Amino acid sequence: MPTWFITGCSTGLGRALATAVLDRGWNAVVTARSVDKVQDIAEAHHDNALALALDVTDSAQVTAAIERAEARFGSIDVLVNNAGHGYRSAVEEADDAEVEALFATNFHGPVALIKAVLPSMRSRRAGAIVNVSSIAGQYSAPGSGYYSATKFALEGMSDALRKEVGPLGIKVLVVEPGAFRTDFAGRSLQQSPSAIADYAETAGLRRKENDTSHGREPGDPARAPQVVFDALASKTPPFRLLLGSDAVAVIRDELATRTKEVDTWEAASKTTDFPA
To answer: Which residue intervals of 78-223 are DSSP H helices?
Structure first.
């Protein structure tokens, strides 16, 4: 019976995934900054669930949570780095402390957890690491520069990681959701405290007071876990797993734009080589 360790289980995709794992009879360590918000999940699955308080930016809590998980279930087979939050701001508007906090949660937290579980996974030559990114990990919209930067960083690290641990029998999967009907664009979305008028028609349109997308997103969190399960079980698993028709459309357009740009500038790019 596999054991999953999932961060950010209080709402949204994390909660849906934790519930689906437990409903399958698998073990799950369900975590959130406030354990009260995930206690109901554990109470509904006494035999195979462990609820823990975990702030992924707290290195002592990370160490303690991994130790408690291994003491209860023996080992962690799948780590899911799902905890994170959004941030809206034009690049110029952002508060430095808020950006540091964003990176601490969305990038440095997952790295700390990965480093904590890898020794055991390496010794067993088995395991999987699932890093929940976003379509913002390949594409950045006005107002999402810093959020995208955290996800670009997560994906860049994950790309190297999969090449390092793949030969050791460890899988790495990056999940890139589009817009899902969760609290992400509501309670979990932060933004710069002040706005600059010159960005009103770009980044400003996506500030919380102007964004009407919350509650109308096309993605259903309950439908996501099965796709993740299928990807991990596949003989040819993807590295990047898109979730949602909007994610497929956005990334397909982004890749087409990049390819066109490479083709347009190919001849000029090649002029920088030493003569043959």
So the answer is: 96-103, 109-124, 145-165
User: Cβ atoms within 10 A of the Cβ of 157, count?
Assistant: 17
Contact partners, residue 52, CB within 8 Å, separation at least 6: 29, 30, 31, 35, 65, 68, 69
Chunked mean pLDDT (size 10), the chain, 276 residues: 96 95 98 96 94 98 97 97 96 97 98 98 98 97 97 98 98 95 72 95 88 72 96 97 96 98 98 94
Name the pairing type of β-strands 78-81 and 127-132: parallel
Among residues 116, 193, 113, the alpha carbon closest in space to that of 154 is found at 113
How many C-beta atoms surround the C-beta of residue 68 within 10 A?
14
Burial call 73-95: b when 16+ CB within 10 Å, e when fewer: bebbbbbbbbbbbbbbbbeebbb
Calpha distance 151→139 (Å, rounded):
10
Please give the radius of gyration of the chain, using alpha carbons only, rounded to the nearest integer. 20
Contact of 130 with 21, CB cutoff 8 Å: no
Find the DSSP H helices in 25-108.
39-43, 59-73, 96-103
CA dist., res. 224 & res. 107, Å (int): 22
On whether the CB atoms of residues 78 and 127 are closer than 8 A, the answer is yes
Q: Is this prediction's pTM over 0.85?
A: yes
Q: What is the dihedral of CA 71, 74, 79, 83, to 10 degrees?
A: -20
Specify the residue for token string 């109308």. 216
Catalytically annotated residues? 133, 147, 151
Topology of domain 3-248, CATH? Rossmann fold (3.40.50)
